Structure formats: structure tokens, C-alpha cells
Amino acid sequence: MSAALLEIEGLTKRFGGVTAVGDCSFSVPEGSVTALVGPNGSGKTTAFNLITGYLRADAGAIRFAGSSIRKPNPVSLARRGLTRTFQQARVFPDLTLVQNMVAALQQPWRAALRRAVRKPEQARALELLEEFGLARLAEERAGNLSYGQKKLLEFAAVLMADPRLVLLDEPTAGVNPLLVDQIEQRIRDLNARGLTFLLVEHNMNLVMRLSDPVVVLDHGTKLAEGSPDVVRTDPRVLEAYLGG
Amino acid sequence: MSRATTAGLVRGGAFAAAGIAFPFVFHAAWIVNIGVLTLMYAALATAWNLFSGYTGYITLGQAAFFGLGAYTLGITFEHVGVGSGYNPFYALPLVGAGIALVSVPVAWIALRTRHMTFAIVTLTLLFIVQQLAFNLRSLTKGSTGLMLPTPRFPIDSYDTPFYLAMLALLLAGLALCWLILRSKLGLMLLAIREDEEKARGLGIRVTGAKLIAWSLMVWLSAMVGGVWAYYLTFIYPESSVDPLVMIGAVLMTFLGGRGTLWGPTIGALVLVPTQQYMITKLGASQLYLVGYSAVFMVVLLLLPRGILPSLRGAIDSRRERRRTHREPVVREEAHA
Amino acid sequence: MHQVIQAIILGVLVGGIYALMASGLTLVFGIMKVINVAQGALVILAAYLSYALFSHVHIDPFVSILIVTPAMFVLGVAVQLVFVRSLRGPDGSELSLLVTWALALGIEGVLSVIFKTTYRVTSPSYADSSWSVFGYRISEVRLFAFVASAVLLVLLSLLLTRTRFGRAVRATVQNPTAATLLGVDANRVQTLSFGLGVSMAAAAGAVYGVIYPFNPGSHYDLISRLLSIVVLGGLGSLGGAVFASLGMGVIEAIVAVEISPVWASFSFFVVLLAFLLVRPQGIFGVRERVL
């Protein structure tokens, strides 16, 4: 297995008396599609928020691309190549699709006064939108898209900045089956081109087809980690899912 | 140059030309006086919009910077001397820049809080500056007020230089807004307004972008305050840090349309003459205050989006209806 | 030292009254994310009502609480129904800031028309009497005012912890959606709580007029303090509001004797800014959840 791009060690978060994530450790190998699964309330989204700096962890260490992230902060993480999507698709509703895409490009300050959407950026945005089947809506307001299309747009937009690791939070939840296939295909293509993914996903068939390794969380701690086949047959995993 | 750019420049040029011509066509002093006030409010509203309209963070502290500008000019007159005639106008950009610089660390603290708290904290700034104006008596002469030397402009066109100065500030504000709206900075600000958390997740430096817009707002507001002080030649704490002035600017922005380029100016063009009419009709400030609050309520409750966005919405939906008539757009359904 | 202790006593007594006004403000925020900028103007309105009752009908200002408070409760309910309820949507909170500000201006305008802008003060016979305890002077009206505030705050907390309505309120504060699913009538809770918040302002206003001279413009002074208090305490936190009120009272009183009265309220604003640098969510506030 190749080197870890993201390593999580002893991650812990308590809300009041409830431990949402407790002493959780796992790693995301470079070039993999790693899945984070577990029953509802097992702390997957909290773990995401801790890793991306939307929540402050009570304890734990995070290493990304070889350097340790002491105080994770969404802005600087994104600029270092770790980016995410949200469970409820989040786009900028009043901006057009192209503007949404270009807004995701991480500009240096000296570019701040340049024209909002420059020709090469527009071309790149259109190219990506084409791949995601949204090109004909390029000048629509993002608020006019269907929910599934918003998810696609959000996914496409985070790619604008050429990230190294993309965290996808439930990429297929609430999306119609046609779009699910498309999202799966996009993940495969991008992964084949070297992009690493960490995803939280409820659709187990999709996870088993797509991911390796799979990390199983239950009550905020890691229950199992390994290839889909290993995880599928792990008795503890079965108990967590079926025994409730 | 794109068609939109040309149209924008033409619109701006026509507005500037009409603005410059106005005091030479209608030179009665009272008309030019209303012109000065209208432009002052338009400039303040445009400045407010530049920060609050584009970032979605409502600030209630603008009057603080208006007052700081007024007092800084007054105090400089008193202790340093900035010349007479037109000279003080030329000092204003520097005065404004100084105040903007000082305001940035304070804004940085305030921006650590979220929307509602931010609005309240900026309101606190207003009271802080007012207290300073009352208490730093050696500089501000406290509640007695500060006298500025009266410039020797010709009596029959005394108001015109101030009119032109306010117009210049408004045009500067509009030009800034126009440039920002077309720039990457504008894209960042709009992203922040739409969904700040998402913007952070994309690596947009939200605090920096907000601070840039903030300091431009302060810069403009302080300069407007300076011109106003020079115009009235007498300032005191209640008049120069007046919540009513700011709330007026906010109201005009809401009326015209937040986050639009021309909205604040349109709002000022509608409201300031109305306001002046109400003052002459209703006289003393008391009934006037009741009328003012009534207008405020009506605007907020009946037209919360403002004139321009409502118009645009109406036009868009008509266009949309016509289009769907011709070619029905098929959209995928979400089953979320 | 004597002076400082005297200042602390004074500060706590003053803080108690502010706590009453501020708790109404923060309660309303907790429930409907609305900041009622008119809270200060409503305090002044109540002060005038109590002043009018005292000077025309000779009702003691402390007794007038029993009349002014219910009357203002009705007014609060009406304000919520007419002005505040319609503010929905993502901008609702921010719009409410401006709508209630407009309301404050309206109240100020109406009061100026009726009472003009001369300063008034409600002065019952005991207004200037005070007790001396261990050499410290305790003004009678201030102590009465403090006790009245404390009693009302205790009643409020009993209302919130011991009654069905209180449970509905607390559920709404914690999770509006879940509360609705559990059968809480959100509209009713919001309207009644807004009325409750305004009646706190009313009760405080009745006693405010005995302690401080006021005119229609006094509401700016009040609201600037009240807003700082609720932010310092943490928006939505009742305990925080009470704590911050007492803190403000004490800080202002100490600055007033040790430095100068003119810097008293200024110093509190500076304390607020300094505090936000360390803890942007206020003393007892929770960070606004974003995800």
C-alpha cells in the first residue's frame, strides 16, 4: 500500500457529555478512494468537520501530505490541497455556474482586482462542467439547479483548484439514480488520474464497488479498517449494523 | 469591450454629466443645498452598500467613521491648518485613508463574531466615537462643538464646491463598486454573502476580503464626513456621530436595492428630497421622526428587496415565461 | 477602598435593573433570533407611563409596575404580530434589527410630540432617602429597584423552568424544528415571548424613571448598553445577560469614582471589545453553529 496522504490519530470530540468521535485513528493512502462508513450517528460527519477545521477537536493529531496540521482551518487546508463537499449540497445560489466554478479557484491577493472571470478560467470551468454534464447550464443561476445538479456542481467546483485530496460528504444522498452513476464514474475517472478521495457514504453497494480501504466507525471509534471484502465479513461490523 | 461594459460606462458618464450640470442649471441656493444632501446620502449609502450590501454583514457603525472624518478635519483645521478654499478637499483622501487604517484592527476583532453580533459590535463603535467626541475636550471642545473656518467661496454659488466634492465622492464610490463587482474580489465578496462557510471550504480568504471592503467603506464615509463638516463649519458630537444619518443611508440602500450598483443612489434620490420636504412641512424634528420611522417600516416590510432587484425580478420572470412558452426546459428531478 | 466598595454596591444595584431589561432582550433573541433594538425605547415608554400615572393619579411608581407591565405585554404582542412576525427568510434576523430600530424612532418621535424633550424624573417622597450600613450609603429607591428586578428575574426563571409554557420556550431555544415536531406551537411561543421580553422592559422602565432623569432620546443611551450587555453575556443566554449586567454596573461605577464619570460607559464598551478578542461568543454564549 502506498504512503498515507492523510493520517488521523486519536481524534476526539465531545459535545457536552456525549462523545461524538472518540480516539479515532485511520489513514487515507495516497491515490486511494477511502470510504468512511458506519451506522447513523457514528460520527462520520463530525470526523469530516474536525479534519477540515469546521470544528475544533478536543484531542488528536492530523497529518496531511507529510506535515502535521496543528490547528486545522478550512481556508488554509483548502489552499494546501485538502478540500471538501457538504452533505447538503452547498453552492452560491445567486452566482452563475461558471462564477461558482471560478470562485473556487484560489487566487492570490494580487489577482483580486483582475476581471472576475477571465477567458482561460472560463474555458477551464466549461471543460469541467462539460465533464459533469452541466455545460449547457453554464450561465444559469446555481439556485435554479435541481438538488442532484447542485451536488454535481459542488463536486465539479472543488476540482477547479486541483486539490490533492477531496472529502465527499454523502456524494449520492438524495440524488436520482442516473446522477449516482455519473458521480460514481467521475470519482473513478478522477481517481484514475491520481486524485485521492475520502468519502462518507450510505450507499453500501457503491462503497463496496468503489472504495479500498473502507473504514468503519461506530459510536465515534474505529471498528474496522481494510479492503471491502475484509470489512464485509468482519463480525463486529455486522453486529454494529444489524444489532443496532 | 463587451456590450455590458460599454452600457455601464455610458450610464455612469451620463449620470456624472447630469450631476455636474445640475448646480449650473438650478443655481438657487436651496436647491443646490438639497443637492449636496442628496449626494452626501447617496455617497454614504453607496459606501455602506460596498461593505454590507456585498458581504451580507450589516454594519451599524458607519456614522462613527463619518464623525471621525468630520472631527479629524475639524481638529486638523484647529491645530495644524489645512489651508483654506479648496485645499481641505485635497487633504481628505489622506484623512480618510488614515481613519480606514486605524479602523482595520477594530474591524478585525468585530469580524471574529457572526452576523448579528457583528452588527451590534459595530453599533458599539458608534457610541465609542461619540463618547470620545464628548470627552476629549482638549481636541473636540466636547459638547460645545468645534468651529471650522468658513471658506471664502462666492456667496451666490457658495454651495457649489461642496456639491461638486460630494459628487466626486459619490462617483468615486460608484466607480469602486463597479470595479469590485466585476473583479475577483467582488466574486469573493458575493461568495461570502451567499455562503461564508462554503467559501472558506473553497479556500477563499474571507476575513481579508471583508477587511478590504470594510476599509473602502470607512475611507469613503470618513471623506464624506469631512466634506460635511467643512460645509456646515460647525460640528458637535450629536450631529456628527448621528445614528439617524447612518440609518438614513441604510434605509436608502434597502429602498434602492442592497448589493446593486445603483440602488443606494436611487434610494437617496427618492428619499432625501422627500425627507427635506417632510422637514419643511412638518417642521420640528418630532413629527418628522414619526414620519421617518413610518417610511422606514413601509420600505422594510413591503419592499425588503428594494426597487432594483424587484424590477429585475419582474423582468426576469417575464422573460422566463416567454422562453418557457417557446421551448419548455426539461430539468432533471431531484428526489431529495 | 471605601469608595471602591461603595462603587461596587452602587454598581450591583444598577446592574440589577439592567439585568431585567437585558434578560428580555436576550430571551427574545434566543427564541426567534430577533434583536429588539426598540427595547431601550420601550423602557423609556414605560418610564413615561409610570411617570404619568404618578403625576396625574398619584400611583406609586413601584405599584405602577403592576399596571404598566401587563399593558406593555399587550403592546409587545401587538408589535410582534404586526412588525416582527412577517420577517422570515435568511435575512429575517438582520431585517429585524432595522425594523425594531425604526420602531424605536417611532416611539421616540411620539414621545417627543407628547412630552417634548425636557428631562423628567419620577420623584416619590422617598426618592432621596437612603440607609447607611457600616458607613456605606444605600439609596432606598435603588435598593427597591434592585429587589423588584431580582424578584421579577426569579419569577421569570420559575416561569421558564416550572411551567408548560417555559418548557416550550426552552425547547424552542434549543431546537426550533424539533420543538415544532413535538407539538410546540412556534408562532404562539414567539408571540408570547416577545410580549414577555417587552414586559421586562416595562417593569424595568417603571423603576428606571425613579432613578434617572429621562427624555425621549434617552433610549440610545440605554440600548447601547443593553446591546453590549447581551453580546458580552452571549446572545441568547439569560445567565450571561444577568452576569454581564452586574459586571457592567460594577465596572462603570468603579471607573466613575476612580477615573471620571464621563469615561464610565466608554470603559464598558472597551471591555466588551477586549473580551470579544478572546471569546467572540461572549461569556456564556455558544458559537453560532454553522453546519
Strand order of the largest sheet of chain C: 1-2
Number of strands of chain C: 2
Kindly state the mean pLDDT of chain A as a whole number?
Answer: 89
How many domain modules of chain C? 1
So what's the overall shape of chain C?
globular
Which structural category do the helix and sheet elements of chain C fall into?
mainly alpha
Write up this protein:
The complex is a heterotrimer of chains A (244), B (336) and C (291). By secondary structure, chain A is an alpha/beta fold. Chain A has a domain at 4-90 and 164-243: 3-Layer(aba) Sandwich (Rossmann fold), CATH 3.40.50. Chain A is built from 9 helices and 10 strands. In chain A, helix 3 packs across helix 4 (119-131) and helix 3 runs parallel beside helix 5. The longest helix of chain A is centred in the last third of the chain and has 16 residues, at 177-192. Chain B is an all-alpha fold and 336 residues long. Chain B has one domain (3-241). Chain B has helices spanning 3-25, 29-55, 62-79, 87-110, 115-135, 137-140, 160-182, 184-201, 206-232, 237-240, 243-256, 263-282, 285-302, 307-326, and strands spanning 146-147, 234-235. The longest helix of chain B has 27 residues, at 29-55. Chain B starts with a helix and ends in a 10-residue tail after the last helix. Residues 327-336 of chain B have low confidence and may be disordered. Chain C has a two-stranded antiparallel sheet. Chain C has one domain. In chain C, helix 2 (39-57) packs across helix 3 (61-84). The chains are: A alpha/beta (244), B mainly alpha (336), C mainly alpha (291). Chains in contact: A-B, A-C, B-C. The A-B interface holds A 52, 54, 74-79, 83-84, 86, 90-95, 99, 102-104, 106-107, 109, 111-117, 145-149, 157-158, 161, 173-176, 178-179 and B 179, 181-188, 190-191, 194-195, 197-206, 208-209, 212, 331-336.
Sum up the structure in keywords.
heterotrimer; B: 336 residues; mainly alpha; 1% strand; disordered C terminus; C: mainly alpha; 11 helices; globular
Summarize the structure.
Chain A has 244 residues and is of the alpha/beta class. Chain A has helices at 44-51, 74-80, 97-103, 119-131, 147-159, 177-192, 204-210, 228-233, 235-243; strands at residues 4-15, 18-29, 33-37, 59-64, 67-68, 82-84, 165-169, 196-200, 214-218, 221-226. Chain B has one domain (3-241).
